[in-house]
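Convert to structure. Protein one:
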Amino acid sequence: MPCARSRAGGRGGDGCALQRLVDVTHHVARLLCADVVVRAGLRLKAEAVAGRARDLRREWWECVHEPLAEAERKGELAAGCPPHRSSAVVLAATTGIEVLPGRTPAGSPGSP
């Protein structure tokens, strides 16, 4: 899946796999914070009937897992950090991001 290379507007194929993952994660976070249409789309997707729409969470998993698997092949991941476990951590940290904009308590980091 080309998402980590092309959609982040970052380093493309010349950077390390882990940096591409960081870049695409930052890009997604910026979109969620700045674009009400992106947030609405994710909300609608979450409420959609299973099997009738694209599986955005599965696509995000692929965007996360691909650079981690590449990093493992290149020896860029620490020993004992297989891609499936690393993917689980990134997914856990980022899937909740879709609900944060607009729900962050006033005065806390990230609040308007």
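Protein two, convert as well:
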Amino acid sequence: MHILGINTLVYQSQLSQERRQSTLVNEIARLVTLVEVRREFIRDQVELKAIHDAVEQHHMQLFYSVPESIAMNGSAHPQLETFLEEASAMGAARVKFNQGDIKDCSAEVIADIDAKAAERKLALTIENDQTPENGTLDETTQALARLRDCGSRIGYTFDLGNWFWQGGDPVAAFEALSSYITDFHLKNISGPVDPETTMLEDGVIPWRQLVAKLPDSTPVLLEFPIAPEQVSGQVDIAKRGI
């Protein structure tokens, strides 16, 4: 059975009112054992320590989502080491980035990124987002093929819903990229025309069928805004579906 996690985007309504992610860990710990925090909602260094302590108290696994490209202009992101140090300070196991132009990087640059992560005992992943630069099947395939050709340890977070924003088909994308997937962001979408995120049971994507094809070792994380009173219900649906 897959490990189920919660990305703190689930609590977007509370985060937009400046609730700290560290205070959400107590709630999340009652539902799952894995939490993914988001860099854009971390306001200061104090929060890094608070997240570390909260996760340690509840014996949870922590992932870190960084909304930045892993590589730019043929080089690693200039703040890569800062991001990795933040992850280490929190006790994170994995750090997720946008794919950026990793497909155009030399083998030496990719090896250096791998080495910086290994020094800190961190696993890295890249993700398809909703932009033309990072969200099309062609761009994502090229990025992942480049990493594989270079023998990189960088994994792949497959975001199930983002494909619709680039006119793609999530099922076709899954079939094309399934051999690369190391992490899975679970959500559902209303459809290809004017796509909107829905609750898991209300969208058009057959997510249960896709998750069933993943190795049991692949973490599955809920990553879409949910009203507070619906979170536990969506977690229950996900648990039954994976």
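The longest helix spans residues 45-57. The chain is about 40% helix and 20% strand.
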